[in-house]
Amino acid sequence: MELLQSHRAEMITIAVALVAVVGATAYYYYLTKKPKGCLDPQNFKEFELVKRTQLSHNVAKFKFALPTPMSVLGLPIGQHMSCRGKDSIGDEVVKPYTPTTLDSDVGYFELVIKMYPQGRMSHHFREMREGDYLAVKGPKGRFKYQPNQVRAFGMLAGGTGITPMFQVARAILENPDDKTIVHLIYANVTYEDILLKDELDNLAISFPNRFSVYYVLNQILRCGPPLMNKAMAAHLDNLGYAPQMQFQF
Q1: For a designed S-S bond to 55, which of 8, 59, 134, 179 qualifies (C-beta 3.0 to 4.6 A apart)?
Q2: Which of 119, 140, 161 is the last residue of a domain?
Q3: Residue 197 annotated as lining a ligand binding site
Q4: pLDDT (tens digit, 9 = 90+) per residue, 66-96?
Q5: 33 marked as binding residue
Q6: Considering only 6-15, 45-54, 224-233, which range has the smallest mean pLDDT?
């Protein structure tokens, strides 16, 4: 009788140990297995617009649902995707965009779009309503970010060029193992043109020692060595700052 009880206790111990091992293995797999992204680099896939939020007279935030609540877009940090639509005369148009969301935002992705009067893809987004679908293909881009690959990033952004910068900054700052510092200069014509200002300000408040943002409107003052002034003048020209909007000490 004692032998039978001992054998039974031994079997129970083994069973408990097996359950623990299986459970631990499953938990490790859950933590380490990266979900497969929804994007296809070769073929367009359609995603439903579930929410449209107007941010200003010509800027809106578009929220698109992924196939399941736990799905991730699968877009590497700093890369973009191609969006396909139709212009005002019905011709197909494809343009690159960078979401403001990360893969930590599961189940959806968001695009912040500035719609220009004559923009071909702007027309498509202007006409989109909740329940419509957007065709997307990707990822695309050469930028590949690895945590701590540099001590600090300096970023220059103008207008809608803020979206890839915001995505990279978020990824850096929200990763507790990444110690990279980010300095952002963001240029716009008017205060109302500043996109994602609340989000940028929140990053600056949440990470005061690692993130700083400087807003520039209308005019630029430059002072420094000749080579720096020459390089910055070229960058500012590309951002749309005419010579009369720049002053060099």
Answers
A1: 59
A2: 140
A3: no
A4: 999 999 999 999 899 999 999 999 999 999 9
A5: no
A6: 6-15
Is there a domain that residue 111 lies in? yes
Query: Crossing angle, helix 162-173 and helix 197-206, to 10 degrees?
Result: 30
Tell whether 186 is in a known binding site.
Answer: no
pLDDT by residue (tens digit) across 215-243?
988 767 778 888 888 888 887 887 777 78
Is 22 flagged in the annotation as binding?
no
As a whole-number percent, the residues of the chain with pLDDT over 90 amount to 63
Ligand-binding site membership of 122 (annotated):
yes
Give domain status of residue 181, yes or no. yes
What CATH number does residue 91 fall under?
Answer: 2.40.30.10
Q: Which amino acid is at 247?
A: F
**By residue range, what is the domain housing residue 64?**
45-140
Phi, psi of 162 (to 5 degrees): -70, -25
Q: Are residues 231 and 166 in the same domain?
A: yes
SS3 state of residue 236? helix
Classify each residue of 33-69 as buried b or exposed e, where b means 16 or more C-beta atoms within 10 Å of its C-beta: eeeebbbeeeebeebebeeeeeeeebbbbbbbbbeee
Q: Does the pLDDT value for residue 26 go beyond 90?
A: no
Read off φ and ψ for residue 242, nearest 5 degrees: -65, 160
Task: Check the annotation: does 96 bind a ligand.
Answer: yes
6 in a domain, yes or no? Answer: no
Please check if 19 is assigned to a binding site: no
